[in-house]
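Long-time lurker. I teach an intro course on protein structure, and each term I like to show students one example going from raw sequence to a predicted 3D structure in token notation. This year I'd like something fresh instead of my usual example. Would anyone be willing to generate the tokens for the chain below so I can use it in lecture? Attribution to the forum is fine with me.
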Amino acid sequence: MAAGAVIYNFVVQLSDVDRGVYDELTLRVARHPSETDAYMLTRVLAYCLEYTEGIAFSEGISSTDEPALFVRDLTGRLTTWIEIGAPDAERLHYASKLADRTTVYTHRDPQKVLAALAGKKIHQSEQITLQSFDPAFIEAAVAGLERRTTMSVSRVEGQLYLEVNGTTLSCVVEVHALPM
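-- Reply from a regular --
Happy to contribute to a lecture. Here you go:
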């Protein structure tokens, strides 16, 4: 954990109808001083929406050779590389060579993220997805965050329903293909 990191505790009721995943998660998340609340919340939502056996948070911003989140199988092999925000093309190129699946979750304008990747060499770019949350949705959710947060995360037919400390929000999780 980085010096000066702030620890957030999340208790999450997860109901991902689209994938048939239902669980209660207890997460202890370190927010690095250079990390925004929006970035941290996007990491937590990505964790929930990708939740499966073997998922874990990386060491964080200080670990440049790891993604924000990853999934390893029982043998320790990296199966899924999950980036947050707006990674550059070189990072996605590297990721898609290491993992079976690469995806990005962003709280930023997805068109700007995609434009920055256009025309760049990215290994198997056609298999990488960008999943975006409406920035206003993230902003409203961040307003409800506390150091100890209780959340309910439900996804039904691509629609995300989020309850954060008593505030209910919803948005569509948009899935974008990377430009070729």
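Some talking points for your students: The chain has one domain: 6-177. The mean pLDDT is 94.
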